[in-house]
Amino acid sequence: MIIRTSKNYSISSSDSVIRSEHSQPTLFVLPPQEILRCPICRSLLSDAVISTRCGHTFCFKCVCLTPRNSVNYTSAHQSTSLVPTLPLSTTGLCPLDQILFQSADLIPNRAIREQVSSLLIHCCHGVKLSDTLSEASDTNKYVVDDEGCSEQIELGNREQHESECLYAHVTCSNSSQCGLYRKKDMDVHLKSCAYTMCCYSPFGCNFVGCLSAVESHESVCVNRSESGVACVKELTDIKLRQNDLSCRVDELTGAVKNLQNSFCSQLEQQSRQLICLSVRVDAIETQLGRFLYGNISDRRNSSEPVLDQEDNKKSGDHTNDTTSKNGEWLMPFTLKCVGTFQGHKGNITSLVCSPGYLISGATDGQIKLWNATDPTRGCYKTTEAHGTSISTLAVEGGTLFSSGRDLSLCAWQLPGMELICRKEAAHSEEVSAMVNVGAILVTAVSDSLKMWQLEAGELVEVKTIPDLPHKVRALTYAKKRESLYSGAHNTIHVWQAQHRFPLRNKIESMGFSSIYSLATTAQFLVVGTYNQNIQVLDIGTYQHYRTLTGHIGTVTCLLTTPHDHGQFVFSGSQDTTVQLWNLENMLPVQSFQRHETPVTGLALHNDWFFSASEEKEIKVFKRVKS
User: WD repeats at which positions (predicted)?
Assistant: First the structure.
């Protein structure tokens, strides 16, 4: 079956079955079914539309050309739109049963269009005109060309294949006088093409010949010297432009850095102002409460005694409402996010607190001291510590210890951040955990523990515990029990916190998976695990007490409230959330969803709680009465 396709029209561009800028011979592998022919033009349906009035399917252009629509068809084609359509008010007449319909009754017949689109045809570069005349007309018909492309393709996908077909005829790039060649044969032709030009033709050479002759000529071409001078000049111009561009890039880079620094400082200033406003709001709320309680007291004075001590307590500060005389946290309370510390240019890796200060380390190599007594004052000090990422931080008294990806260990004097000493190559790998056990600093590296002591301004290694079963990821110290706890895969080692650190106990085979964080209270050993759960053990018997579930990611950090009883524990996770748990009833108290990346650090200073994540920010929370 032979048809010749031409430029098609469609109601919607996405519904077009055939889209070709030029006529191409179409030879079907199998003759199309009769149902795929238009009853008007008897050709293959092109952009088939069906009338909802009569149910017949036609080519869109054939319906446009019916006598009732010829005027509208002409006006549609005179429009600048590439997709001719009929006005909604236009009426048409079905040429088969003379039923009237409007253009709104014509809808694309997608079933027919898909059938037409899936018809198999021979590639147009694999057919040729036959020497015999067609039986139906005096014109020649097309047959398969044995020397052409043998691909059989779907009608709807013909353009993609035919545009890339290696059997397509193309003209020689040297001269149109060579005639047409198939793409696959062009490389062979170019080697013998008699119209190959000399490479110095832009400089005035008119030599033309086959490739071998041109190559011989180019070695003695008189235009070589001129081209060389031109090339040197062009190269000089390129270098000058390159220098100009380099200077411009440097200027733009400097401007970007200045803008970035300005933005960071403004952002930090705005964060301080936001924290200040939040504190003021809390103060106003407190004053309002006192005012209300005072009015009640005044009213009571007329007929009752003044408020007793319990009533006075109700009108006091929020902090006093939630903290007992011995520092224990009391319910009810809530933690309110009042602001954000911003300033690091890398992911924050560690958070610790010392009296009056919050200390943070990040992958930008900086250690920052923040005012933890009055967070509105923001950053107090910034120190370039290791020249590379900060791994862990630990603080004891007025001394801060830091480890970095450069494998060094540093000691700093607080709050001025004066460097006391630096121990280069202190470890063979990056430190995964670090904790102070009195005057001893304990670091975890891979499957080993190292103990350090600051003596005469130098960090001295006093002991190494090597060859533990697995990598140690977590450390914590229980001062009253004089015990150091180290967590690895499904194993917790309990070490006696003395100079030699003998092994006191070993907790294993509990199915905890890898242990990523540890914390202790007077009653419990709290374990954060890879499998998203928090395991609670009796710290005296090491028996499993309870499993806390709520996170959907690895529990990366744990923090207990400072009182000896330790009623509450904070947990941070890779699921970007922080949760507060009550260890008396083993229930969650509050959940915080202020981060968008995994939580990396938690810290507590009086009524201020801080959490950090990989998004370079520290969230600031204040404990207030519920």
Answer: 341-371, 548-591
CB atoms within 10 A of CB 532: 17
Question: How distant is the alpha carbon of residue 609 from its chain centre?
Answer: 28
Q: For residue 180, give every residue at least 6 positions away whose Cβ sits within 8 Å of its Cβ, in sequence order, or none.
A: 169, 170, 171
Q: Let me know if 378 is exposed, middle or buried by CB neighbors in 10 A (0-12, 13-18, 19+).
A: buried
Longest dimension (CA), the chain: 124
Strand partners, 496: 483
Report the run of H or E that residue 579 belongs to, with start and end. Answer: strand 578-582
Give residues with Cβ within 8 angstroms of 526, minimum separation 6: 518, 519, 520, 534, 535, 536, 537, 558, 560, 569, 583
The enclosing H or E element of 106 equals strand 106-108
What is the residue-wise DSSP string for 256-312? HHHHHHHHHHHHHHHHHHHHHHHHHHHHHHHHHHHHHHHHHHHHHHTTSPPP-HHHH
- pLDDT tens readout for residues 441-487: 999 998 899 999 999 889 999 999 998 988 999 999 998 889 999 99
Residue 107 to residue 57: CA distance in whole angstroms: 10
Would you state the structure tokens that stand for residue 310, as one six-digit string?
A: 């319990």
DSSP label at residue 138: S
What is the phi/psi pair of residue 560, to 5°?
Answer: -100, 155
- pLDDT: which is higher, 10 or 420: 420
Q: What is the CA radius of gyration of the chain?
A: 41
The one-letter amino acid at 210? C
**208 contacts 197 by C-beta, under 8 angstroms:** yes
DSSP per residue, 316-363: S-HHHHHB-TTS-B-SS-EEEEEEEEE--SS-EEEEEEETTEEEEEET
∠ Cα 583 586 588 (to 5°): 100
The tens digit of pLDDT for each residue in 367-401 reads 999 999 888 888 989 998 888 899 999 999 899 99
Q: 3-state class of 599 per DSSP? A: strand
Running DSSP on this structure, what letter comes out for residue 67? G
Structure tokens at 301: 């004075």
DSSP-derived letter for residue 561 is -
- Residue 354 is encoded by which pair of tokens? 């010392």
Nearest to 452 by CA among 393, 392, 406, 409: 409
pLDDT at 66: 47
Q: How far is CA 564 from CA 357, 474, 481, 524, 535, in A?
A: 22, 21, 12, 11, 20
Give whole-number Cα distances, 109 to 16, 36, 55, in Å: 11, 11, 10
Q: Is the pTM of this model over 0.85?
A: no
